[in-house]
UniProtKB/TrEMBL annotation:
Organism the protein comes from: Vreelandella songnenensis
Record's subcellular location: Cytoplasm
Catalytic activity, EC: 1.17.99.6
Name under which the protein is recorded: Epoxyqueuosine reductase
Residues holding [4Fe-4S] cluster 1: 193, 196, 199, 253
NCBIfam families in the record: tRNA epoxyqueuosine(34) reductase QueG
The organism's place on the tree of life at top rank: Bacteria
GO cellular component: cytoplasm
Domain 4Fe-4S ferredoxin-type: 184-213
Purpose of the protein: Catalyzes the conversion of epoxyqueuosine (oQ) to queuosine (Q), which is a hypermodified base found in the wobble positions of tRNA(Asp), tRNA(Asn), tRNA(His) and tRNA(Tyr).
Binding locations of [4Fe-4S] cluster 2: 203, 219, 246, 249
Cofactor binding remark: Binds 2 [4Fe-4S] clusters per monomer.
Keyword match Oxidoreductase: yes
Length: 362
């Protein structure tokens, strides 16, 4: 295909992408040498914790053509996810309510974005005929943020998130690997963080250990979602009421004020997860959990770890008879993991009750 036709196709791809609901579309090549070295160093330091999948696939993660033979270009897309009328920092200041990371309030984004990417691929196919492609949305060994930066979608913030000057970082990324030699976009080279270190200061557990470097083993998102076993005691109080993920480093970022509200109905909160109390969520039975998290990213952690996280949140909540009663109701729960965290939470509540009584004494 001649260069001018490929350039025209690239423009069409971006137009079609925006029409499908992606806020930005960029195209890049598959050279990720610098990012490959950064990943190797990160893995060598053990910062991935139990996320063995980060090392499992070798260089397929950093060499797209090894993952999908024939890949010459990557079409990178982003989609805003913050729904309207959703509180962010306010909920963090309400310790009796559960904080669920804003991306997980609605339906699972993977299916929605993959469907849109498949539609984009079909439109390209109608234009050029059969071509090689494969769509990804956080579902395979893909360097999503690195590819997005190279495609001009943003720069790496000090919290290692991809930041866009007009949209902050509250968006999802997706990719279409293709064998079409499309012209590439210039990478986003200029970083706008400057001397700002708000994200590092705000991290409750000190997980941002260096510029653009996260020690996942300390990150609340990792602890509440990826970690299979017990949450280390030294991080439990710092979790506060965060029961699924953590957005603190994004919420304090100055660029978050440019976040665009999503028009996707699938991202709207379900079952009042943007404002539900810890007690009400802790009362869900397993069937209710499975029913209410159907089609939600929360489902992947399972009921046992859901209770584990909520128990920690209740331990951090202000003392009340209702909180203690909720914890006692799970004191003999069959899972040793849940029982351990409930016992810890009850100890925390006992200390608070004792302090309350001592303060009230004449």
């Amino acid at each position: 295909m001649p260069h001018d036709e490929l350039a025209r196709l690239a423009d069409l791809v971006k137009t079609w992408g925006r029409e499908l609901g992606f806020q930005q579309v960029g195209i890049t090549d598959v050279q990720l040498d610098a990012h490959e070295q950064h990943l190797a160093t990160w893995l060598d330091k053990g910062y991935h914790g139990e996320m063995g999948f980060m090392a499992k696939h070798g260089t397929k993660r950093t060499r797209p053509a090894e993952l999908e033979p024939g890949t010459q270009r990557v079409i990178s897309v982003r989609m805003d996810y913050l729904p309207p009328e959703v509180e962010t920092t306010k909920v963090l200041g309400q310790p009796g309510n559960a904080y669920v990371s804003r991306y997980a309030l609605g339906r699972d984004y993977h299916k929605l974005m993959r469907k849109r990417l498949a539609q984009l691929a079909r439109q390209i196919e109608q234009e050029v005929g059969t071509f090689g492609y494969r769509a990804f949305v956080d579902s395979a060994p893909v360097m999503e943020r690195a590819l997005a930066q190279k495609a001009g979608l943003g720069w790496f913030g000090k919290n290692a998130m991809l930041l866009n000057p007009k949209a902050g970082s509250l968006f999802f990324l997706g990719e279409l690997y293709t064998d079409l030699p499309l012209p590439v976009d210039p990478p986003f080279e200029q970083e706008h963080c400057g001397s700002c270190s708000a994200c590092r200061t705000a991290c409750p557990t000190g997980a941002i250990v260096d510029d653009k470097v996260i020690d996942s083993r300390k990150c609340i998102s990792y602890l509440t979602i990826e970690l299979q076993g017990a949450i280390p005691v030294e991080f439990r109080r710092a979790m506060g009421n965060r029961v699924y993920g953590c957005d603190d480093c994004q919420l304090v970022c100055p660029f978050t004020r440019f976040t665009r509200i999503s028009r996707e109905q699938d991202f709207a909160p379900r079952h009042d997860l943007d404002r539900a109390s810890l007690i009400s969520l802790f009362a869900w039975g397993e069937e209710e959990f499975l029913d209410k998290t159907a089609g939600s990213p929360i489902r992947r952690i399972g009921y046992e770890r859901w209770l584990r996280n909520l128990a920690v949140g209740l331990g951090n909540a202000p003392w009340s008879e209702a909180v203690e009663a909720a914890l006692w109701a799970r004191r003999a729960y069959p899972s040793p993991l849940v029982r351990e965290h409930v016992a810890w939470a009850l100890d925390e509540q006992r200390h608070k009750r004792g302090a309350r009584i001592a303060t009230a004494a004449p």
